[in-house]
Amino acid sequence: MAGTAAAGAGRRFGFTTGQVIQEFGYDDDVDTAVREAIESETGEELVDEDYGDVVDGALIWWREDDAEVEDLTDLLVDAKANLDDGGLVWVLTPKPGREGHVPPADIQEAAGTAGLSTTSASSAGAGWSGMRLTSRGRH
After folding, report:
1. Pairing between strand 116-123 and 128-135?
2. CATH number of the domain encompassing residue 118
């Protein structure tokens, strides 16, 4: 069941063939099935946080122990720096009740400060939840 949820992650997250997705916060606790599903959907390997070119989306693994809300804000600003217009940012956190869970309000606060809007949430495999962020329009 967990594999099935992760298998559709690439499509469910809005990523498509040929897109380059930059990953932040990789550690040994990430859901490898989610990573593999995104790579399968895009046909590209995820690039790491040191990648210096334009990307089509960002995937951020964030846990309570990673730091404060202000640090997530800084990371979101960094993720936006390489993001192509219209690119999506997903912040993945451990699901409620799991070690490292981050309240959605913390993600929303960091996103707002970083100039991003939260648009939706989704399950991202057995142990992770995702929140989708987009750039605010400048009209």
Report:
1. antiparallel
2. 3.40.50.150
CA distance 29 to 27: 5
Element (H, E) at 116: strand 116-123
Nearest CA to 99 out of 8, 29, 38 is that of 29
Count of domains for the chain: 1
49 three-class SS: coil
- How distant, in Å, are the alpha carbons of 79, 96, 123, 138, 139 from that of 23? 9, 22, 18, 26, 29
CA 22, CA 52: separation in Å to the nearest integer?
Answer: 10
pLDDT per residue over 70-84, tens digit each?
A: 999 999 999 999 998
Separation of alpha carbons 50 and 22, rounded Å: 9
83 lies in which domain range? Answer: 2-135
Question: Who's near 87: CB < 8 A, 6+ residues apart?
Answer: 55, 56, 57, 58, 135
Residue 116 φ then ψ, to 5°: -115, 155
Taking only the tens place, the pLDDT of each residue in 103-120 is 999 999 999 999 999 998
